[in-house]
């Protein structure tokens, strides 16, 4: 006979006691103990561990969701601040350009004013020189006349 049939034969025979499997009241009692232990372990150990793992999974999901939202918000803020920075640079450049144009305009006006003042001073100096020249010529004429009269007198007296 094969081993299986031998074992089956031994299990069914009532002569042998204490074999591999005894089908008496201990088997159902062990089954009940197994189920009771499974239920107790489930209530005492597995459910709290599963609850902790579920809470951890939920916390991780919430953290990831919050992190994703924060990342999106940070990206939006970064874009917003980059746009504001670009606009600020443009405004600063336009302000600088306007200030440079105003400064050039002011310098041009000052140069024109200085040129006009210089021309005016030159004109006044020329007028004064002309007046002094005329006065000098008049005095020279009067002196020449007196000298020529003196020379005539001297020549005629001698």
From TrEMBL:
GO terms for cellular component: plasma membrane; proton-transporting ATP synthase complex. The chain crosses the membrane at residues 26-46. GO terms for molecular function: proton-transporting ATP synthase activity, rotational mechanism; proton-transporting ATPase activity, rotational mechanism. Keywords: ATP synthesis, Cell membrane, CF(0), Hydrogen ion transport, Ion transport, Membrane, Plastid, Transmembrane, Transmembrane helix, Transport. It is a single-pass membrane protein. The keyword Cytoplasm does not apply. It is found in: Cell membrane; Membrane. Component of the F(0) channel, it forms part of the peripheral stalk, linking F(1) to F(0). The b'-subunit is a diverged and duplicated form of b found in plants and photosynthetic bacteria. F-type ATPases have 2 components, F(1) - the catalytic core - and F(0) - the membrane proton channel. F(1) has five subunits: alpha(3), beta(3), gamma(1), delta(1), epsilon(1). F(0) has four main subunits: a(1), b(1), b'(1) and c(10-14). The alpha and beta chains form an alternating ring which encloses part of the gamma chain. F(1) is attached to F(0) by a central stalk formed by the gamma and epsilon chains, while a peripheral stalk is formed by the delta, b and b' chains. Belongs to the ATPase B chain family. This is ATP synthase CF0 B' chain subunit II.
